């Protein structure tokens, strides 16, 4: 069957094509159609067709190359407060009576109504005593039929209007809705290509910090930046929107505007210091050793002016004419050496430390001073 000649639809949000035909040639209260497609269909599948929402309400009829099922158009949206969160569902309302001429019509006078919803994480939470507003009435759930796989069939009866029922916006028990928000302290910012930045969001429920929320992160353009559990990684130069929302209530959402900038090369500098043998009393300016004393000489690495993780170094000592009997030179480790002044000299030792990682080096003249 040439489905490429069919009509454009989506099945559970995925683009597809299908052949659509009327389910009956007789007038009916329900808007039912047959759908045939090469993709497997299941009861409760959500079909988007002609800018309307439809649900598969029958089992599939499978042939060698296609799947066929009956779908019914959603005729209303229903709002319900579940676990302090307001949810809105596409639904089929089905309180139907037979008129004198044999036609069917929606009968709310009888005080009972049936609402059919596809099963999902949220509609599965609808239980007895949940209330909703539709057609100018308040309804209370009196039973839930889950016997048809893929569908929740909700049975409800009329209820009295309460003080917390918002009839205009069709929200029952509005007082049960928690006020949620997501905050971050650092907001919009710049991240360099190849670098990471970690956001630590705070979720507030009714103004108080709430620690039990599961959050979902999303990048508007993963070719510019990716995000995983709040860690934004710069991929390419540009601007991108990073969003974080609550998994159970995606409408609670925070959008962040991020600029991904070209990475500026780090400025690496080095410093040599003199210190006591235990590393205390570092001195970066006076490189002298009194006769009879032993001093430690070490290296530090700075990244953009901030002390960072150190390199390893190769140290070399040039006596520069100082007699070998005047000093004792010992390499302690890859970051430091010690020099003992046994006898003063007017000449200066030349100590060089070369980074094993960058190849940069620093040289310092060291004076062996007498006691007086």
UniProtKB/TrEMBL annotation:
Protein name, as recorded: Uncharacterized protein
Native species: Desulfosporosinus metallidurans
């Amino acid at each position: 069957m040439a489905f490429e000649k069919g009509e454009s639809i989506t099945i559970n949000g995925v683009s597809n094509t299908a052949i659509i035909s009327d389910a009956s040639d007789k007038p009916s209260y329900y808007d039912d159609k047959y759908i045939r497609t090469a993709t497997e269909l299941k009861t409760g599948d959500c079909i988007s067709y002609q800018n309307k929402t439809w649900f598969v309400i029958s089992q599939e009829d499978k042939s060698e190359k296609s799947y066929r099922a009956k779908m019914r158009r959603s005729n209303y949206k229903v709002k319900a407060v579940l676990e302090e969160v307001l949810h809105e569902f596409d639904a089929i309302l089905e309180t139907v009576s037979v008129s004198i001429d044999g036609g069917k019509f929606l009968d709310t006078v009888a005080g009972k109504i049936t609402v059919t919803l596809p099963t999902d994480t949220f509609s599965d939470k609808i239980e007895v005593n949940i209330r909703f507003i539709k057609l100018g009435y308040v309804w209370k759930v009196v039973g839930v039929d889950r016997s048809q796989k893929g569908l929740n069939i909700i049975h409800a009866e009329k209820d009295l209007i309460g003080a917390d029922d918002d009839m205009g916006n069709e929200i029952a028990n509005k007082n049960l809705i928690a006020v949620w928000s997501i905050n971050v302290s650092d907001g919009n910012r710049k991240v360099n290509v190849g670098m990471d930045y970690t956001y630590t969001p705070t979720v507030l429920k009714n103004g108080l910090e709430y620690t039990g929320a599961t959050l979902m992160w999303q990048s508007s353009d993963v070719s510019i930046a990716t995000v995983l559990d709040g860690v934004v990684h710069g991929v390419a130069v540009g601007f991108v929107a990073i969003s974080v929302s609550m998994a159970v209530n995606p409408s609670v959402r925070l959008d962040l505007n991020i600029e991904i900038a070209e990475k500026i090369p780090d400025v690496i500098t080095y410093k040599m210091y003199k210190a006591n043998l235990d590393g205390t009393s570092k001195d970066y300016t006076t490189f002298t050793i009194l006769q009879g004393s032993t001093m430690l000489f070490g290296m530090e690495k700075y990244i953009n002016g901030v002390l960072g993780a150190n390199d390893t170094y190769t140290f070399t000592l040039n006596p520069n004419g100082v007699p070998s009997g005047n000093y004792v030179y010992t390499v302690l480790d890859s970051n430091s050496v010690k020099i003992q002044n046994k006898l003063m000299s007017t000449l200066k030792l030349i100590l060089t430390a070369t980074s094993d990682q960058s190849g940069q080096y620093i040289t310092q003249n060291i004076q062996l001073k007498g006691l007086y």
